[in-house]
What we know:
6-stranded parallel beta sheet, 20% strand, alpha/beta
Amino acid sequence: MKIAIATAVYYPQINGVAVFAHNLAVGLAGRGHEVLVICPSRTGRNYTEVVDDVKTVYLRSVDAKVYPDQIHSVPEKKKVLGAAVPRLWYRHGLRVSVFPQVEVARALGDFQPDVVHVQVSDPIGLSVVWWARKHKVPVVTTEHNQPEVLRVPGVVKKPVNALLSAYFRNRQSKSDFVTMPTEQAIRGLLKRKELKVPIAAVSNGVDLKHFKPGKPVKAVYEKYKLDKNRKTLLSLGRLDPEKNVGAVIEAFLEMEAKTGDKVGAQLAIVGDGVDKARLMKMARGHENIHFLGRIVPPELYKIYQLGDVFVTASEIETQGIVLIEAAACGLPLIAVDAGAVSEVCVDGVNGFLCKPRDVSGMAEAMMKILVDDKMRQRFANASLKIAGEHDFEKTLDKFENIYKRVMEGH
């Protein structure tokens, strides 16, 4: 098949959509399909590259400096008279394609896809759907977002969420097939009876050949100044406000305050983002909290193998790729019962689900798992079993079948 994938963010950016789109493109190309990716340029100009047998067309883009590009490190806040000034401008901003219709039409016209797969309803995604409808090419969309991803004041949160939900559903109604990573995410956002389009849950999946249990590497401990004699709580993802990493730090500090140093634990935080400076300030003076920075494969595989428990306080996940990666590496999970994480983190089976913003509950969960070796091993075994259902090869199988189905319908 000739498959075109449209996305607003793409490798080497680090977020769920970018990672999934890249994995999907490379995986499909590895199975012999001809794959085209359309995404914003990283330089501003239009250019084309072929990497891992995937033809990628980078469309002209502008630098939206109000948000970092998720590739370069986020710099520390500047200080004026000793006080940190809020950062409103980033040297390396997120690249956005604003008016891509002509470039999209040219790229798709040259490629002549059998099916298009849209990841985000940005101008690129909308332009791809418009072109596909005009040329009678079937459209598959994957909805990765929940309305909660946009942080707004509480007084307007409900109407804003309702508007976003209506927009997401309207976008999906233009498709021939819709997927979301979990059934729970579908129930939370899409109304099957109202949306007259086939809908299926298809896991984001992870490559179990790479994400797997392994013996921790001493050199990795040394590189990141971690204590190999301590149990490691691992938190990984974008360090942005919506990911709520501050709650993880608060829970760790509360656990330490209650137990002293009896647990013998350390918290390793992997990632970068606009909230990093605030989080580092929270952790200042606490020698058992470590910020490892942005880490990508293949070193990322070794980082997971250092962990004893994986913890996240994010409330906006439609599935959470990092949770699957951690489970595949045999880590017990601690997460928040919000979004759609409960299909990966099953309370009492492979970890604990805590109430949103329940710092004390998260601290208690940390302590329970860390002090109980038998529980930790039982949860680890269950994580491996659950992760087996999210093998990326199964994800590729499902999308191949979906593409064939919509092509036959046309």
